[in-house]
Amino acid sequence: MNLSRLRPTAPSLFAPALGAVLALTLAACGGSATDSADGSSEGDAGGESTESVTVEHAMGSTEVPCTPQTVVTLGQGQTDSVLAMGVTPAGVVEPWTDDWYPYLPDEVEQAEVLGTELEPDLERIAALQPDLILGSKLRHEAFYSQLSEIAPTVFSETIGVAWKDNVSLWAEALCRPEEGERVLSAYEERAAALSDKLADANQTDTEVSIVRFMPDQVRIYLTGFPGSVVRDAGLGRPEPQQVEDWESSEQLIEISEERIPEMDGDVIFVMVSSEHYAQQGNQTVDEQMDRWTSTDLWQGLDAVQKGNVVEVDEAHWNLGGGILAANEMLGDLEDHFLGDGGR
Amino acid sequence: MSITTPTLPSPAEETARRPLLPARRLLLPAALALAVLAGMVLALTMGSSQIPLWRALTAALGVGEGGDVFVVRELRLPRILVAVAVGGCLGASGLLLQGLMRNPLASPDIVGVTGGASLATVVAIGAGTAPVLLPVAAGAGALLATAVLHRLAHHTGSGGARLVLVGIGLHAITNAGVTLVIARIPVDRLGAAEVWLAGSLHARTWVHVTAVLVGAAVTVPLAFWLLRRLGALELGDELAVGVGVPVTRTRTALLVASALLAGVAVAVAGPIGFVALGAPHIARRLVGPTSPATLATAALVGALLVLAADLIGQRLLAPTALPAGVVTAALGAPYLLWLLHRMGRR
Amino acid sequence: MTTTAPPPTRTAPERAPSAGAGALRTVVTPVVLAVLLVAALAASIAIGSVPLPLGEVVAALGGARELDSHLIVQDLRLPRTLSGVVAGSCLAVAGVLLQGATRNPLASPTLLGITSGGGFAVVLGVAVLGMPSSYAVWAAFLGGAGAAGLALALAGSGRDGMSPVRLALSGAVISLLLSSWTRAILSLNETHSDEVRHWLAGSLAGRDAAALPPLLPLLLVGLVAAVLLARPLDALSLGDETAVGLGQRPGRVRLLAGAVAVGLSAIAVALAGPIAFLGLIVPHLARFLVGSRHRDVLLASALLGPVVLLTADVVGRVVAPPTEVQAGVLTALIGAPVLVRIASRKKVGL
Asked: H helices within B46-133, ranges in order?
């Protein structure tokens, strides 16, 4: 196998890279990088003169007194995007991996862990006496009423593919709408810049395949979070991975080995877990990957023949699902298509 | 097979072996009821933060600091009440079913009743049903499975044995159905399905409490009412007919009652396994033959088991919570082995 | 409660067919079954989640390796099909041995908890203890034997001995327990909750061709032992006294048959995970076709097992695209009604 490793392995190498990405993000929009750089919730960066803001969201409309200082995020994407807007949540839910995603700023360590995204500990949430709770109808609908008794609670409809709308929603609820616009437009500009550079390099018709190996299944991602960022970067998808209707399409398909040819593209991005990076740990994933990638079907893929298989960290490609993760993904794409990893 | 293995007594056999003083029959359920109450009070004080006993009690009555009142009345109390009611229903359901099937290993989670609820719920989750309506789906699934079970095993007349086999088959079918549905469910709803299938009491609200209490208020008296006939049935079909109990009708009524009890429980808490299997055993050991005292004891033991399982699940790996169903499954194994061992020494 | 001893079942010779008809049946049926097996093999190679032109399939079988379709046939469908043949035969033969040894028509790898015990042990070994998955067959053997032992002990603990119902119920309890534990281990150990499926319902998908060869010696030993056990089991079906009169030692025969059955089931579990009910339904079908002499039943089952399993697998590949449905789910859907059917037969001796 000749998979090139795009990202360094050790977290210690990650931190500077991350800082750079953050700085880039913030610098891109000029100006008020300072108040966000410390990432503290004490900052009054979005300090509004209004007393409160009424947010329309998936469960109705909720009045949030401004500016919420103690924020609880009940999903990976919420945690990510709130951090991006310079607010450190007081409480967060566990990441899907054993350790925090390497791409997240260190501030996330300061937050209290409140259980899992599917079953957060309501008592701990109440004990924090938050000013604002951010969740999603998809995950947390069953206990919305209890949450909204604890604090003003704002839910997105879903997670994943709608992440940009959700960033705006969180910004509104945090009384920091301009902060939301800032991070979003920074992202859009960066994506557009990448798209332009790809056009200059005649790579706009590059078809990107996104796959993920799991212990008992293998998936091709069509839309979802990774699909949307790749699309924003102006990259195409191979024919079997194109969808007719972006909104209603299946996010991903689970495939059998017979369908390995559908994984082909000009580049195949293989999402692997952070743990895999950290310790080559998850044995069953490794076995699954070894088995699939040692088949002649895989070896015969164009991308494999040309050495265009890139392992990327699923932490920011798939699990994080917020705007920091999206920027980190753009970074991977820039590195591959414009940097050393590219041609 | 000629293994000379120990005797696992059938309900009726245990009856014969353990004559019991009436006083104990009354005292034990009373003591257990006190234990359940004590457990509930203890549970009021326990959580991610300890609330001292007195404060917890006053908070339950709505008096005290706002934070305490909210945690105790909106988070802990509904969960505790649901746990107790669910456990009670499961224990009673198991006792009726074991008596009806004349088999100490029968329970609703083995004969397909719980499986039917699971299948219906997973289908509902896949279709994007609002969480509020999931108990309805689960209850309907349990009843539908019971109807199928009864229909297929209609020509019984062999002491409920056929019912057991048909039930095991039904369980396998519903299980396969769940796997089939899970394979087709949109990926972002998988989490909800897995959480439900684990059997969890996370974030139960007063809506759940109302639902389960209404259910229990209907089904538990029904169970007590049918109990006398169950006692007759356990003596054998001929004797039952002899004392004027219509065997077939009674069996149907018992099956429905047991399924209703299990359905109520599974509707609000998902499939919490082994309680319906274990609680009746413990009850028969404690108070002996099938009697109102045994039924009450089975229900109370079930309540204690679920309450304890939920507390353990919440505290063991905090802040990560283990679903109560995982805890009861973990405890089910040693219990079963112990049971085997105990029978071996007899 | 039934107070009779375990009743004689269909395993006992029920009637003596006239020699000519019987011989015809025992000769013709295996030939027909072999033809069926060839058909199932052909279907399993020709049909899959990716439709392939028949010509390319044939070319691939002839050794061509130019097209993706050739690779699919040679590298994926052939190993998968072979795994199916082995797993199907193993489970079916194990079922015959268990039913013969216990004289219980419901004894089978699934109902004794052997398959879920094996699956549990493999998950425990791989996920918790970090065992390399090449040891899976041994873990499956230990787990299966343990589960069967528990189920038998639980079933035999009744005063009335081991009635079919008791056995089925004990096995169901043990199975439920072990699959709960499997679910618990996987949900605690893995970061993603949807990874538990393979070990809760067996599947032939993605079976590694390399897993097969090391198991072949075991398979051979198991099958030879099964053939050697045919006569003793015939004797056993006449009752223990008669068997002793015929020079058999019932206890030893049972122990051997049980061990071989667990071993064969372990091979199947290592290859395909816990496939449900195959070992229950195939022996019954086989007895229906060839009568009750163990030699004939074993041969017919060994041929019929793969037919059923491969058919389930092929159906699973195309029934719910794009996802493949595990063969174990489909065998459960086929097998459970058969269980109900067996249950409603008068002879089962409830």
From this structure: 53-60, 66-70, 77-100, 113-126
Question: Which of B270, B269, B271, B291 has its CA nearest to residue B280?
Answer: B291
Probe site for chain B from A112, A129, A144, A146 (most B CB atoms < 10 A):
A146
Q: Is A54 helix (H, G, I), strand (E, B) or coil?
A: strand
User: Of A111-125, B189-203, C98-112, C145-159, which range is least confident?
Assistant: C145-159
Tokens of B14: 């245990």
Q: Name the residue in chain A with its Cα closest to that of C323.
A: A254
Domains with residue ranges and CATH for chain A: 4-22+192-337 (3.40.50.1980), 29-185 (3.40.50.1980)
What is the torsion angle, in degrees rounded to the nearest 10, for the CA atoms of residue C29, residue C35, residue C38 and residue C39?
-110
Residues of B in contact with C193 (CB under 8 A): 190-191, 194-195
Tell which CATH architecture fits domain C55-345.
Orthogonal Bundle (1.10)
Question: For residue C311, what pLDDT is reported?
Answer: 95
Of B313, B69, B165, B213, the closest CA to residue C170 belongs to: B165
Tens-level pLDDT at each residue, chain B (346 residues) = 333 334 444 555 444 445 556 677 788 899 999 999 999 999 999 888 889 999 999 999 988 888 889 999 999 999 999 999 999 999 999 999 988 888 787 889 888 999 999 999 999 999 988 888 999 999 999 999 999 888 887 655 555 677 888 888 888 899 889 888 887 788 888 888 888 988 999 989 999 999 999 999 999 999 999 988 888 887 777 888 888 888 888 888 999 999 999 999 999 999 998 899 999 989 988 888 788 899 999 999 999 999 999 999 988 877 778 889 889 988 877 777 777 666 654 4
pTM (2 decimals)? 0.84
- C144: nearest Cα among C256, C265, C271: C265
Backbone φ, ψ for residue B201 (5° rounding): -105, 15
Which chains sit next to B, with 3 or more Cβ pairs under 8 A? Answer: A, C
Q: Which residues of B touch C183 (CB under 8 A)?
A: 197-198, 326, 329
Neighbouring subunits of A (3+ Cβ pairs under 8 A): B, C
C51 → chain A, closest CA residue: A258
Beta-carbon separation of A126 and B47 below 8 A: no
Distance of CA A166 to the CA centre of its chain: 12
Q: Which residues contact A138 (CB under 8 A, 6 or more apart)?
A: A157, A158, A159, B188, B189
> Distance (Å) from the C-alpha of residue A115 to the closest C-alpha of chain C?
13
Other C-beta atoms lying within 10 Å of the C-beta of residue B184? 12
Distance from CA of B76 to the nearest CA of C (A): 25
Q: Write down the domain spans for chain C.
A: 55-345
**Sequence-separated (6 or more) residues with CB below 8 Å from residue B226:** B96, B250, B253, B254, B257
Question: Would the CB atoms of C172 and B171 count as touching at under 8 Å?
Answer: yes
**d(C-alpha B322, C-alpha B340), whole Å:** 27
Q: Is A252 on the interface with B (CB under 8 A)?
A: yes
Q: Where do the domains of chain B lie?
A: 51-345
- CB contact under 8 Å between C350 and B155, yes or no, is no
- Stretches where chain A sits below pLDDT 70 are 1-50, 274-284, 340-343
- Please judge whether A257 and C76 are an interchain contact, meaning their C-beta atoms are less than 8 angstroms apart: yes
Residue C224 carries which side chain, given as an amino acid letter? V
Q: Is A115 helix (H, G, I), strand (E, B) or coil?
A: strand
User: What chain C residue is nearest to A259 in terms of C-alpha separation?
Assistant: C50
Indicate the residue of C177, C187, C320 with minimum beta-carbon distance to B336. C177
C222 closest CA partner among C264, C187, C176, C163? C264
Size of interface A-B (CB pairs under 8 A): 71
- CA C321/CA B183 separation, integer angstroms: 10
What CATH class does B51-345 carry? mainly alpha
